[in-house]
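Chain X:
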Amino acid sequence: MTVDDTGSGADGDGRVDPEPAPDSADPGEDPLALRLEGLILGAERRYTPFQAARSAGVSMELASRFWRAMGFADIGQAKALTEADVLALRRLAGLVEAGLLSEAMAVQVARSTGQTTARLAEWQIDSFLEGLTEPPEPGMTRTEVTYPIVELLLPELQEFLVYVWRRQLAASAGRVIQAGDDEEMVDRRLAVGFADLVGFTRLTRRMEEEELGELVEAFETTSADLVAARGGRLVKTLGDEVLYAADDAGTAAEIALLLVETMANDETMPELRVGIAFGTVTTRMGDVFGTTVNLASRLTSIAPKDAVLVDTAFAEELIRTRDAPASEAAAAEEAAAAEKEDEEPPVYRFALQPMWQRPVRGLGVVEPWLLTRRDSGGGES
């Protein structure tokens, strides 16, 4: 639902024209669909976009920007808006007027919220509600079953959504507070990893759509669970690829190897390859950007099957944090020195093997490192 920002329906001094308002419903609209909309929105259609903007005390231009940012389709000047739409405009405009948000930031809030919840809503309708609303008796339509189910689920799902959002907000705020200075709140040093299913394009030609959808869902679900459990953050999924970030190299390395190992143990899954880079990352609207992200993507494209490639900065970070030795020779020397002093030798989780330097499109010459685990005996596994 977006808007026509020409201000149609008003005369020069901003008053609504005396013409009768459009009907709230198109004659072709399904009455049951309208009932379902009213149930979900919790209010009836009362306003045209212009009337809603005026009631909220917001200019038509700003209302249009907010609605478009939220991803609502253009409805011209149909009477399709509710008291909730008016209240939402008032709240956003009030944050701007109070100086808590700039106008540009308020639009970003609208856009990020709209994009995130649009995907959630699509998933819930396509997967969740579709399964629950299978007609239990012959002759009943799906719509007839959907209404009572939504009526029961809506308040519970709403409370759960707010709970998860608060939890995620608390975790994100904690990460920002731990940043060293104001610049790090936007441009932070992170480990960024891409995990990519090998040969996915060929699979799309061989597999049925339903089977392919199940594979992608299994990959995304497994990846999301592993990333979250190990303390990383799933940035986004792209069907055959996931992008994740972690505050430290050790966490990112553990996630990458677990992803490869988990997929390798699943006969239904193709091989996986992972690329990780470490460095400054710009964060916007929950996404990550910058040279570090581009480098991680390029490393993924050249990584061998069921393997993890990392950049030099990532390798150096693992060495600095004592998660990996500078080399196996250095590790052997340290073990010998510890034995001589009757001390415990250092224990490293990972091993790094330098690969051939190679040119990477747009990034010059890079030196990838192959990341593996170290076995209990101290060598590469």
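Chain Y:
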Amino acid sequence: MSSTRRTIYKIKKKKKKRRRILLVLIPFLILALGATTYGAYLYTKAQSVFNNSYDPLAGSDKRDVDPMADNISLLFIGVDDSEKRQFQGNSRSDALMLATFNKKENSIKLLSIPRDSYVYIPERGSKTKINAAHALGGPQATMDTVEELLDIPVDYYVRMNFNAFIDVVNALNGIEVNVPYELREQDSKDRAGAIHLQPGVQTVNGEQALALARTRKQDTDIMRGERQQEILKAIMKKATSVGAVTKYTDVMQAVGDNMTTNLKFGQMKSFISYVTNDSGLNIESVKLEGSDLRLSGVYYYQINEMSLIEAQSALKQHLNITSQNSPSSTTQDTQSATTQPAQETAEAQN
């Protein structure tokens, strides 16, 4: 490789690294927006971070909402742009989690969407793994796909990279989690077996928390989603503790340029009420049950139709809305999943 090509590659790698993301939105919102209680400096710091992360281009065309007054939905997008993939274009989403916020109930519903889910992607015009949506059209294509799947508007999104996830956990001096089994997993630099954890409740650092969130070798995508939610809750618990106050600056610095969102800083203040309410934060998980599916030798996760309908109903009720799509577009039935486009792209293999 010539020196010019090496220079171009290094520049591209540096830029793309900033976009590796996993799901740490809510605790960061708590940390950054909670800073308003502790002084003008931290407030200004948080405002600067969010203003630099604002992306006005992506959003739902189904409705206009005000987070300060309305029930809203928020899509957390985690994208794996690891070095071994050489940062070519948009990467696949490594994790998707939808949260709905109900103002009256002061509650949140969390739905993890398995990355291999076989769904219709509007950007592509056919069905494949849901993680391909981001590779095809970034956050907007991902939001459109989730709207199509769940039959609800996806009002906002947040992306955050692996570096931010690691640094946030480290800035909090680790989080307490339950490791379900002994695992050996690659680290954020894709070094195989670099992370080794024994089963049991323990405090983990950023790299270890990331490995626990990513692994799926010994269980299912559904269980992986449940682990990610438990890790998210652990971060939230640590972030809202009294001892975390002194870590706010470190955490905000850790996130820095590693987040992209279509939420404005002023809109984010609406989330404070969810964590400062006297009754506490009420978080409920919603599941998407399914089964294994193989088409032309490629693995997919086939979402169970009844489970999908139940999830749609729960989310609509929580948002207090009615159906967004036509009845024929709200289900992902098994019969239609038995056919596949003649040529499946390489992105569906992972």
